[in-house]
Amino acid sequence: MLPESFWGRIGYLLQQYGVSFLQGAGNTMLIAIVGTFLGCVIGFAVGVVQTIPVDKNDGKGKKILVGILKFIMACYVEVFRGTPMMAQAMFIYFGSSYLFNINMSMWFAAFFIVSINTGAYMAETVRGGILSVDEGQTEAAKAIGMTHVQTMTSVILPQALRNIMPQIGNNLIINIKDTCVLSIIGIVELFYTTKGVAGAYYTYFESFTIAMVIYFILTFTCSRLLRLLEHKMDGPDNYDLATTDTLTHTSGMYSYSKKKGAKK
Fold first, then answer.
1. Is the Cβ–Cβ distance between 31 and 179 less than 8 Å?
2. Which of 35, 48, 84, 185 falls 20 to 30 Å from 92 in CA-CA distance?
3. 3-state SS string over 162-212?
4. DSSP helix, strand, coil percent of the chain (3-state; round to 5)
5. C-alpha to C-alpha distance for 30 and 28, rounded to whole angstroms
6. pTM of the model
7. When comparing pLDDT for 225 and 60, which is higher?
């Protein structure tokens, strides 16, 4: 018998469907984490391609190839940033079968959709992060003979990564919430589970209250953990120079410990 009070119904639903809510939340987190990770990989790749320099002295073939790649990447970014994920999910999942006779599994489609959607946003974030690094560092890397790929991987991207960490965390939070649109292709995540529970007893308000609390717990926990990671990447506030180079002794960067009995 369903209780009449609001909190009584909340307790009843948790007792009956608590495991289902947890399974739905677990699926939501799995899709969000994997999709965000793969999206970051895609975004970094696209961002690096978009920042490939083209000099006047470069060959015509390189200019044409780089131009084509940048055009394709720009189209990808604009299309997936300019259309809602729900429409993308419908188009990719059902369109792949209709147009190309490719029968995707729901889970593969879910990971693929979230990844390429996140990658489009991350591409612009990475491009901005790369451009935020002082240009002199790129010039210095080129001066010692480093290629564009070496410069990106060893000099620019490690610094850009710290700059864009807040946006990576923001994309993860967004993906936790936006996985609900994947219910349209049958993925049993938290939103899909909540709809089923709500429809069983017509307790929509109570069921979605539980879902909102779970979503908040997931997003709040992830945001706190990511904030700790950001502080960890910042390093300590004060640094002590440790060196054994005798040349630095005369530069005022090294201080000798006072001998016992010396006057202050």
1. yes
2. 48
3. HHHHHHHHHHHHHHHHHHHHHHHHCCCCHHHHHHHHHHHHCCHHHHHHHHH
4. 80, 0, 20
5. 6
6. 0.80
7. 225
